[in-house]
Amino acid sequence: MNKTDVLIIGAGPTGLFCAHQLGIIGLKCEIVDNLDKQGGQCIELYPDKPIYDIPAVPECTGEELTNNLLQQIKPFNIKFHLNERVEELKKAENRWHVKTSGNQEFDVAAIIIAGGVGSFEPRKFPVKECEKFEGSSLFYSIKDKTIFKDKTISIFGGGDSALDWAIELSNTSKVNLIHRREGFSGAESSVQKVKELNDQGKLNLYTKYQMDSVSGDNQISSVNIKHDEGEIKELKSDFVLGFFGLIMQLGPILNWGLNINKKTVEVNTENFETNVDGIFAIGDICSYPGKLKLILSGFHEGALAARGCFKYARPDEKLRFEFTTTSKAAQERLGVKK
Amino acid sequence: MAKITYYTHDSKTHTIDVQNGLTVMEGAVQNDIPGIDADCGGGMACATCHVYVKEDWLDKLPTKEDGEEDMLDMAYEPKQNSRLSCQLIVSDELDGLEVTIPEKQT
To answer: How many CB atoms are closer than 10 A to CB A47?
Structure first.
């Protein structure tokens, strides 16, 4: 059991800065995130794209913003639990017991949900029968590429993941790459490489086709693909891979008794607490009149939620407002006291 | 102002007056028309405001930017008449536009 003051769910910019605010007022926290790295949407959706509306930072990328935030919270030695999704919350007297998908357990005084628009999950094929094969011969990510050796693989998608895997697997497998249009969203160099491989017969490229159906008993044996004009082709396939990016799902958060409104959690604007005592929500996941889904709003919400946690974590103490420029206590916590 | 008709997956028809300058997505969200999630809030960073545009409207709409077509790759069951409704800005010219909201967005 990990015992700490506050558990933050979500390691995006809002969660990271909130950890800083908790640290400044002397509370300990740990952070859980479903992704394999910190940064949330900034890293997953736009690592290289510039952001122009962080106060006092004229321009930075999602990756730079994340790195700077990590640098800023370094003094607090915050423990991250990545690749973990929070599944269960249970009230235990005045504290919360939390369990994650990887069976990690936490005992905390308060919880701050900074979950963006939920956890990232792969987008799936619309074709129903796909579910039956998922995890055995149909995948949305690759863990062990050796299983594909000398097999026939049908890959769907037009982004970098689809292109990169098509190129790599074409060395050891027979690869079909199927995409719904002639243009690709992946890197131009990869598109050229795929076209070369197609011309050399080392890979079969089918554009303007989408999945129509899959068939097989326990394992997939073939996939039917349908052209924009209606023509159907059958492709013998041992494995099917779909790379359609990630979608965001609220997931287990829906089961925690919170007031949910259009995939967001309702909070008050005094301290961003939800309808459940001791559970706060900040950043894109929270809603209140006038809510703006901006990173800077998330920073503000995190600063107030951190202070809102204080009464749960230190019920016998009083929180005093202080500036980092002058507070000895804050400077000690930051490790900068001269 | 333009009258926009949204056909939802529960076979209901919603005809709404949408102010010029709003997007077709905002018209749906503000009027609680089900099926448009618009997770990213209109930033062309998700594909959860995907709609099918009635065929005879396709040529009358502004053409897609590259980013829109890239995001449509991620949509649930994209077709040739697929658009992201956050990219369709309402003006008098769109009066009478009809869109169908897909079965689901994810």
So the answer is: 15
Asked whether the domain spanning A124-244 has the same topology as the one spanning A2-121+247-334, the reply is yes
Q: Is A283 left (phi over 0), alpha (psi -120 to 50) or beta?
A: left
The encoded tokens of residue A305 equal 């939620």
Q: Which residue in B39, B40, B106 is closest to A123 by CB distance?
A: B106
Per CB-CB distance under 8 Å, the chain B contacts of A260 are none
pLDDT digits (tens, 9 = 90+) for A283-322: 999 999 999 999 999 999 999 999 999 999 999 999 999 9
Question: How far apart are alpha carbons A283 and A298 in whole angstroms?
Answer: 4
Identify the pLDDT of residue A120.
78
Tokens, residue A19:
């950890």
Closest residue of chain A to B36, computed from CA coordinates: A262
Strand A95-100, strand A60-61: pairing:
unpaired
Q: Confirm or reject contact between A46 and chain B (CB < 8 A).
A: yes
**CA-CA distances (angstroms) from residue B79 to A50, A74, A210, A228?**
31, 48, 10, 8
Domain coordinates of chain A in residue numbers? 2-121+247-334, 124-244
- Could you please state the CATH topology (level 3) that the domain comprising A2-121+247-334 is classified under: FAD/NAD(P)-binding domain (3.50.50)
CATH of the domain at B51: 3.10.20.30
Give the Cα separation of B58 and B73 in Å (integer): 18
Cα–chain-centroid distance for residue A291? 21
Q: Topology of domain A124-244, per CATH? A: FAD/NAD(P)-binding domain (3.50.50)
Decide which of A48 and A220 is more confident: A220
* Residue A64 in tokens: 């730079």
- Closest approach of chain A CAs to the CA of B56, in angstroms? 18
